[in-house]
Specification:
Blueprint (H helix, E strand, L loop, with lengths): L1 H12 L2 H4 L15 H21 L14 E8 L17 H9 L1 E3 L2 E2 L4 H10 L25 H7 L3 E7 L17 E5 L11 E4 L2 E4 L4 H15 L5 E10 L7 H4 L19 H27 L6 E7 L21 H4 L3 E4 L8 E3 L3 E2 L3 H8 L16 H5 L10 E5 L2 E5 L3 E3 L5 E3 L15 H17 L12 E3 L6 E5 L4 E3 L3 E2 L9 E2 L7 E8 L3 E10 L8 E6 L2 E6 L27 E10 L2 E11 L7 E9 L1
Helix pairs in contact: 1-3, 7-9
Length: 628
């Protein structure tokens, strides 16, 4: 604006009309001008040239912040605090993640939930996960209540382009789907676990697609394309990676660095550590680092570094016993090692490089913090549990109030103050002096313990009371604002002899379907009546082709028959770097069942066989409903 003003002044005041009374020949552009005129114009133009230099003088961290900075939030899955060279692990090198710390802020004591979907819920809402309806990791318990407003909802309303690329894990069917939670673009999978990381079946805005290469590389490529497309406008990229979560798969390029490597830094109890698992996890972490380097290089090439907030953290503690700074606990634990996350925030020109923040913070703080950084005043329907960390990041506050953070999982609750942790059994530990939680101070510091016990009791009364006793929310089918609805085996119930391929539902399938009395059912709530094209994903050996099946929703039915064999081998073992405990996957055959007209209301969706000429009906993966 100042440049425009100076240009206007020069044109208006020092245009041809300014020269004319001072010219020797005012009828032409001057060949010989008045020295006084030349001096004034020269000084004015010098000031104009110096303007951009003067405006950038001084400490870059004090330069004017953009009103709507871009935001990139990178969340890894099962990467422990110790799985980085920035935190002292010499077993691996993560230079690109480390650079976020060098160029920005490091939170030395930052806390998340003990497992995946609860942390995601807290990041998206700024509220403790039990308040949001998220109380598990599968079978519907991972779904974020529909009255919750997400960070993406607010940013989208404020004019941001919003995209999520990776593992969602907060609901599958719209409006629980990412496209219903504020994200214009979604590419990835909605379950908590995926069985294959090399060109797997994924989805793009509700439509099933085939992935392109290793999933983390693929998610990053899609995120980069999104950034390039929206580089001229504010954007929010949510990049929830799904590694180093099992299965332990990683390309040869990364595995070759670790398959024969001696690990010098080990878990505090080496007998508990599975070295092969650790080697695979660290290889996956180095792949993550390489991909984060791709993101930051893209920002440099597009000249977006000073207009983009980049955040890195993990969703819980490590998924194995490996070096983690001597902390007690791992994934699933409410102890320090299960909930402390490596957390870095870079915003070049605004956050001081190599800033170290020792005050405790948590996943619940992201929503208020990012809204403050983006200067967005949102009117939210629920009270937030998190607080804005902007004063710590921008160093505008010299004092910081004491606060408590609570971690909960599976009936266990721990409390973290700035110095102490009260564990789920009410033992007290001085984390500053005893990070391994070995010395119980309950007797020596009874006053501190009693205060934390009282705070924990009050939190349980206020927050855990909101946890449902059981998951009874139906699956939403046919929402009027969306066109595609995935009904997977994961969300169904198998009856009779039908078995699930793995005890953990996620990307499992149903098998051993051999009887007319067997069935698969889903509790659905049809919200928009109409005709839907139904597609079946199945496998069936040639010897069993011919089974007839019936899909019923309420009083409406559609019949089909398996006429094309498809019996691919199980996949996954050829790419696993460590033996898996869950089932392998298949490539599925797609078959149209035809059109089904469904009525509104809560009803039972069921799939059963009406004729079985062979030994089995099929192995079943999912149904896809598309509005006609």
């Amino acid at each position: 604006m100042l440049k425009l003003f100076f240009s206007w002044v020069e044109h208006t005041l020092f245009g041809p009309s300014f020269y004319s009374p001072l010219m020797f020949n005012s009828s032409k552009a001057p060949h010989h001008s008045n020295p006084i005129c030349e001096y004034i114009v020269g000084m004015w133009r010098l000031l104009f040239l110096l303007l951009p230099i003067c405006s950038s003088c001084g400490n870059s961290s004090n330069s004017a912040a953009p009103d709507q900075p871009n935001i990139i939030l990178i969340l890894t899955d099962d990467q422990g605090w110790g799985d980085l060279s920035a935190t002292g692990n010499t077993n691996l090198q993560t230079p690109n993640i480390d650079a976020l710390a060098t160029n920005g802020a490091t939170f030395t004591h930052f806390y998340v939930a003990p497992v995946c979907s609860p942390t995601r819920a807290e990041i998206l809402t700024g509220r403790y996960h039990p308040r949001t309806g998220v109380h598990g990791t599968s079978s519907g318990s991972e779904r974020l209540d529909l009255d919750e407003v997400t960070l993406a909802d607010v940013l989208k309303k404020a004019g941001y382009h919003t995209g999520a690329f990776g593992k969602w894990h907060n609901g599958m069917q719209y409006p629980y789907h990412p496209n219903g939670r504020g994200f214009d673009e979604f590419y990835g999978f909605c379950s908590g676990h995926w069985g294959n990381y090399f060109s797997p079946m994924l989805e793009h805005n509700g439509i099933i697609v085939q992935g392109e290469g290793f999933v983390i590389d693929d998610f990053t490529s899609k995120a980069i394309s999104f950034i390039e497309k929206h580089q001229s406008d504010p954007f929010f990229v949510y990049l929830p990676y799904n590694t180093p979560h099992r299965p332990m798969q990683v390309p040869d390029r990364w595995w070759s660095n670790f398959k024969d490597k001696t690990l010098n830094m080990r878990h505090s109890d080496p007998a508990q550590e599975d070295l092969l698992h650790t080697q695979a996890a660290l290889a996956m972490c180095e792949n993550i680092d390489w991909n984060i380097g791709r993101i930051t290089q893209t920002l440099k090439e597009l000249d977006l570094e000073e207009n983009t907030v980049v955040i890195f953290l993990s969703d819980n503690g490590p998924n194995g016993w490996r070096w983690n700074g001597g902390m007690r606990g791992r994934k699933g634990s409410t102890d320090e090692g299960g909930v402390r996350s490596p957390t870095f925030i870079q915003w070049k020109g605004q956050i001081e490089p190599s800033l170290v923040i020792n005050e405790i913070g948590g996943a619940i703080d992201f929503l208020p913090t990012l809204l403050d950084l983006a200067r967005i005043d949102a009117h939210l329907p629920h009270k937030l549990d998190g607080v804005s960390l902007e004063p710590l990041l921008l160093q505008t506050e010299t004092s910081w109030p004491n606060r408590l953070l609570f971690q909960h999982w599976n009936g266990r609750v721990s409390v973290r103050s700035q110095r102490y942790r009260l564990d789920h059994e009410d033992h007290l530990y001085d984390i500053v002096e005893d990070i391994g939680q070995r010395n119980d101070l309950s007797n020596d510091s009874s006053t501190v313990r009693n205060k934390l016990v009282a705070a924990k009791t009050q939190w349980v009364k206020e927050v855990l009371v909101e946890l449902p006793k059981e998951e009874n929310r139906p699956i939403i089918l046919g929402h009027p604002d969306y066109g595609h609805f995935q009904i997977p085996a994961r969300d169904g119930e198998g009856y009779g002899g039908i078995q699930r391929s793995n005890r953990s539902p996620n990307c499992s399938y149903f098998t051993q379907w051999k009887s007319l009395q067997d069935s698969i059912t889903w509790d659905v709530d049809v919200q928009d009546a109409g005709d839907y094209e139904v597609v079946l994903y199945y496998t069936c050996p040639k010897k069993d082709v011919g089974s007839k099946i019936r899909l019923r929703c309420g009083d409406q039915v559609v019949d089909g028959q398996i006429t094309v064999p498809h019996d691919p081998p199980l996949r996954g073992m050829e790419d696993d770097r460590h033996p898996r405990g869950n089932s392998y996957v298949k490539d599925w055959k797609v078959m149209s069942l035809g059109s089904l007209s469904i009525d509104p209301g809560r009803q039972l969706l069921s799939l059963r066989a009406t004729a079985i000429p062979g030994e089995t009906v099929m192995d079943f993966r999912l149904l896809m409903f598309s509005r006609k």
